[in-house]
Amino acid sequence: MDIEISGLTLKYDDFVAVDDISLDVPDGESLVLLGESGCGKTSTMRCIAGLETPYDGHLRIGDDVVFDSVGRKNVAPNRRNVGMVFQSYAIWPDRSVRANVAFGLKAKKASKEQVQSKADQALDMIGLKHLADRGASALSGGQMQRVALARSIAMEPAVLLLDEPLSNLDAQLRVRLRNELRRIQREAGLTSVYVTHDQSEAMALADKIAIMKRGTIVQLGTPQEIYDEPATSYIARFLGMGNVLEISRGTEGTLGLGGVPVTAGTAPTSWENGRALCIRPEQVRLAAPSQAHSSQGAVLTGEVTVSIFQGSDISYEVDCGGLTIQAVVKRAPYGGESVEASVGDKVDVVLSAEEAITVPMDEESK
Ligand SMILES: Nc1ncnc2c1ncn2[C@@H]1O[C@H](COP(=O)(O)OP(=O)(O)OP(=O)(O)O)[C@@H](O)[C@H]1O
User: Fold this and answer.
1) What range(s) does the ABC transporter domain occupy (predicted)?
2) Pocket test for ligand 1, best of 12, 55, 211 (most atoms within 8 A of CB)
3) Which pTM value belongs to this model?
4) CA of 46, closest atom in ligand 1
5) Which atom of ligand 1 is nearest to the CA of 44?
């Protein structure tokens, strides 16, 4: 079922944690709330679940208005038909896997056969049917989180809410489980809202990502839109763009990036004051000194200060007159053609006009 959120505001005493948020999540889609710690992701989620009472706004899940400040409507959490999966697994260790999954179904007073078949179906979906009779204490962290997920799915909720469910797992398992989560969400056509501060998790799991900052949504878009076109310098930095450089353009046609004068034969008109130039480390090219030409974009001269071997890539930091540029260069055997440099080497750094984008500069990220 779809979710409609409009004008949602939540206060903790005088502190506004969620500030007039409006969002729609279409039926069967996955929305990810992404942002720095404290930006209001969990608070927004808790409002949808009914665990917090908003100060203002309107919330609808499918045909049911579950909160409305004007109509003074506030449906209790257990009547909202939402499933929740949190960071802590909330598994009963002394019960079997099946009993853990069946718990909510029993509370719903389903028949014994229904409980059994729905629990087994959910376990099958998350790939744990073979462990149905095992005691839950004999499970790994990843398996426990799957059980928690199966328990929510078995209830066939209208909406599934997930708050950093993978953050207690090790890196490899996180990736595996997040891919599985995405498969299950798609297969079951689950409308879901997922909270995370991890951008790669967000990219993998979302149909749409809402980036939050100080209780507001600062960008909403598909993972591709957000990755390719961050709306501001703050978002570009938050997404790990690597090089986000304030542009200063003089009346004489001079150009500065991040406070350092650069040569740029073909600086596009969009490279203007008040904007930041963003370019990912993988898009930065290095050339031997004096070998780069400014017709390619902006050229800076610098010295390699950091060189880190990363298998098929080498990650560099280049000091260009006080400005540090991050570059990741593919090594020749892996399709790369750029120079490989060592710490102390002088290099030219090329920021291609074609590949760089510009975004409005946030005051605070200067
Ligand atoms: N019960 C509460 N009372 C007062 N302030 C709170 C309460 N819960 C959260 N806050 C504050 O509201 C803001 C938003 O918190 P919230 O937990 O929604 O952030 P978040 O984006 O989910 O952060 P994290 O990623 O760290 O979980 C924070 O500044 C937090 O300190």
Assistant:
1) 3-239
2) 12
3) 0.88
4) 18
5) 18
